[in-house]
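Workshop exercise sheet. Pairs work together: one partner reads the sequence aloud, the other fills in the structure field after running the prediction. Swap roles for the next sheet.
Pair: D.N. / O.F.
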Amino acid sequence: MSLDNTQTSLELILQISRELATTLELKEALSKVIQLSMENVGAERGSLIAVNNNHEPIVAAIFADGRLVPYTIDQVRTILSYGLAGQVIKNQEPVWIVDTSKDERWLRRPDDAANKTGAKSAICIALKARDQLVGVLTIVHPKPDFFNQNQFDLLQTIADLAGITIHNAILYDSLDESNQRYQELFDDSIDPIIITDWDGKIIVANRQARQWIGASYDDSLKLSMQDFHQVNWEEAGDNFSKLLDGDTANYESEFHSLDSKVVPVEIHVRKVIINESPLIQWTLRDISERKALDALREDLMSMIYHDLRSPLANIISSLDILDTLLPKDTSITPVFQIAIRSTDRMQRLINSLLDIKRLEAGQPITNPKFVNMNSILNESNEILSPTYNSKRQTIELDIEPNLPELFADEGMIKRVVINLLENAIKFSPLDGKIILSARPDGEQVLISIKDSGPGIPDEAQDRIFTKFTRLDAKTFPKGIGLGLAFCKLAVNAHDGKIWVESTIGKGSQFNILLPLKKEEKQPETLR
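Structure field:
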């Protein structure tokens, strides 16, 4: 190669490098490469096709007759299926055709006939970046046996430069597309979403959030999330420290708009990375209907409690009088016992409703004293023996004798045990087996009740202790969803712990740990 040719080649490579450095737009980059390459060798036509990981065409630049030729993706797909470019993509090796009229690899066009443009020469090179195929470059000269080794090497160098540029442009387009898709999802979300800095200053709000904030909202005001609601710092951490550590915060609050509207909300807060900067994303959900439903449920519970308590007390008093008047061991005795058990169950339900309201309000247990746990467990079993006998179920007692006494509300703890036993009976099949066990566990007492029911799904094992939670009615018996909620509140009020261990198809075991808390001494009054 002469000095002049070498200098020309270097100048071309430098020019192409400069041109490619000025753009990340894929189609523009392809056009610049193909035009400069063709001008250098006086080519008749050429094409540069970018492909994805599946070697499917993304975009192309096809140059002929001194201009860019319009195309469709289907046309480009045909070129890759039957033309020289497709073979190069398949083998990922360059092809140098000296005479297109004598090479079977060349897909002849109508104007390639001898009486028209005739035989030509062509070079086709695969474009790679980081060993990944990103495209294919084809250059066609109107004369056969035109290209030499220097021109081939130059085109290979150009292909290497173009490969890196195409790879970067594809990444840029992908990032741009992802950003656009995120922006569309962000703005069209039915939930209000707000992005803030780490001082809580609002950077951007989606369409729904802007409506919530109010008609007078202006992006330039730089308002803070703290202007619209009370941040739960216990959940988010001081100065959002928990969010910085990667935790998420979930809590309920009230959102106060600029239009003086107040909306009860559930707020989900987490750290997000946008344009390589850590920010805070707030997702709000209107829970007005849920709050209204909760209020309705509370009203219903209060009505049930107040309206049933007085008549139930009269029924219980009447049954007590009848118990003294009726002869014993007669045919009416079983019917009378059913009435007694039913009223006892109603009384337990009403007392549990009252306790739920008191414990949720943070009130302490009302009647703590030292209680005999062996008596509580055995009495609970006796109360329910007619129920499990009617289902031909067996109950196995594994209660260690002489359990230590607990300082607790006897009635409340007994109702917890009865509730769990009733659940075990309800969920266990006919002829099923229930195990009631209790033993000391260090400074605590461990009580376990195991059934032979269908088991509880993993995702529901925490949720079942929430008020009004009901599992799939097709698999599980119906209920109002208050029994386990009461159990959890009652056990927590005694500084204890309740949890469930369950395997689908093998039953469930509810466990209670109650501490051996001593009676607190009252301070002596001054005389």
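Discussion prompt: Residues 149-188 form the longest helix (40 residues). What would you look at next?
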